[in-house]
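A common beginner's mistake is to predict each chain separately and then try to dock the pieces by hand. The better habit, illustrated here, is to supply every component at once so that their relative placement is modeled jointly.
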Amino acid sequence: MKSAVVLLPGLNRDRDMIAALTKISGQAPATVWQTDTEIPAVDLIAIPGGFSFGDYLRCGAIAARMPVMRAVAEKAAKGVTVIGVCNGFQILVEAGLLPGALMRNASLKFVCRQVKLEIANANTMFTRRYRPGQIIRSPVAHHDGNYFADAETLARLEGEGQVVFRYAEGTNPNGSINDIAGIVNDKGNVLGLMPHPENLIEAAHGGNDGRALFESALGLAA
Amino acid sequence: MKARITVTLKNGVLDPQGKAIEHALSGLGFDGVGQVRQGKVFDIELTGTDKAKAEADLKAMCDKLLANTVIENYAVEIA
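With all components supplied together, the output reads:
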């Protein structure tokens, strides 16, 4: 399965994402730079975490207006699978590919720790290798992960099963509404999440809870 | 032409930074401070002279980049 990783100045989890995709898919992902207007034919596009453009204006705001994001939007509209992690989630929201907004953590503090996630919908292309309601572990590291959406949008997300990951067992690190940690778009092919599943994919990481997300998205057999 | 754009959080959107500033003000002994909401100001110089066009452009700038209209309102003033 072929994948591509979007590179933008200020991202710092790109190597982690490239390593995870290489190990799980068996081949190194292509990389696309912010000014690229075309993305090669791939099955999965990943936008990694970091601090693109120094988080100036709003997290992800500048990155979302770069040429490469128009190419990502075109691919997403054609049904290509897209994953945005952390700053990648913020970029997808700012680009209008996912609804809502990510605001400053309610604690005002940067959080860097491990949380528990509940698989709120196991019937998505990103979670089919998990069990419904399964609790997994995942690292988080962010300052602006407090998900917000207006009441109407929230009702739609909840009603349509677009909330895919929820912070479990009182581990909500940022004040996100309804403990939302990750959502998909209405077509179900674009996922954004604040936690870093790419940092928990093998024994050396202390566990592999995040691996099934990539195996699901890449359509790999168990 | 000079313009000022003010971006504020919509009502009902939680503002943890405003809350922290509110607490800090009362900590400094300023009694009678109610709710504090934090926003942003952009001062923009424009080279054109057509005020109507400037206003339309500034609104488009807000919608496309300067404000996140999911959570923020904006106001445009032209000096």
